[in-house]
Amino acid sequence: MSFNIALNFEDGVTRFISCNAGEKILDAAYRQKVNLPMDCSDGVCGTCKCHCASGEYSLGEDFLEEALSDDESRQRQVLTCQMVPSSDCVIDVPVSASACKTGIGRFQGKVIRCDALSSSAIELLIELEKGIDFLPGQYVNIQVPGGTQLRAYSFSSLPGDMQASFLIRNVPGGLMSSWLLQQAKTGDELTLTGPMGSFYLRPLQRPIVMLAGGTGLAPFLAMLKKLALNPVNQPITLLYGVTKDSDLVMTEALDELAGRLTNFRWLPVVTDTESACPQKGFVTDHFDHALLNDGDVDVYLCGPPPMVDAVLRTLQKRQITPASFHYEKFAPGQKAEQHAAA
């Protein structure tokens, strides 16, 4: 038996390692040529201190309180030289990937198809040479063929799949949009680097509210597909905001996921006043007390900067502080270095 361990470095890079049953994280990382911070490796110095964001583990008692205090242990701080996982885990490492002599993953793939789903959205499907491990919600950088420019796109597919899918904003005249719609053909090679990002699905402990703006739907598709593999009891609501009815895409996929996740519902929200959609306006117009559960809720938001700012203002105005709030901003023609998450 082995466990999948995601190491999230402070520069946004995520590296996955495999940890055998009974094996310590530091040893597993070293075995796979990832040099996590360390000095004594005996639980004395505290140099290898990290934070376990999710997963189950044991630390034993062979470390000094000066290296890891009881308060730090309660906050899920860990010493990787002592940590033995008993499930898949996500570990936040407080240094850059390069400092640990590892780097961003590089993957090759070929275009299977790219379809214009609407005037505003393109779906890209890629056949990979090998599946990419990532945390649902994370993104990769894709190199625009014929140049050196990179664009950041969130997966809409499951981690590890040999086919990776992406929902891409159609930007008129955009570098990637133009290539996809005018030049791309089946078999064209693409280079992907990653995964990256702090916007990813955490363990479900309370009701979930997902807020998607346009092609910001992509990471939620990955999250929901992952949840559908092991359904949970917590209610999940997705508000999917677009400008006009024709911008609503992947609705059949959402309906199919709703059929598999009995506690999941999704509601389209359209700003066009002429829309046939029952929910008109902005997603912030449809926050009710039941949805926000008096703050006992985890909120995930992916959309353009004005949408993110509007949601933040609305929550502040209503004096509601979610138990956790994770968001990612994107802009048309998003360059890799501009991708922002919190």
UniProtKB/TrEMBL annotation:
It comes from the Bacteria. It is an enzyme of class 1 (oxidoreductase). The keyword Lipid biosynthesis does not apply. One of its GO terms (molecular function) is dioxygenase activity. Its EC number is 1.-.-.-. InterPro entries: 2Fe-2S_ferredoxin-like_sf (IPR036010), 2Fe-2S_ferredoxin-type (IPR001041), 2Fe2S_fd_BS (IPR006058), BenC-like_FAD_NAD-bd (IPR047683), Beta-grasp_dom_sf (IPR012675), Cbr1-like_FAD-bd_dom (IPR008333), FAD-bd_FR_type (IPR017927), Flavoprot_Pyr_Nucl_cyt_Rdtase (IPR001709). Keywords: Dioxygenase, Oxidoreductase. Residues 3-97 form the 2Fe-2S ferredoxin-type domain. PANTHER family: NADH OXIDOREDUCTASE HCR, PROTEIN RFBI. This is Benzoate dioxygenase, ferredoxin reductase component.
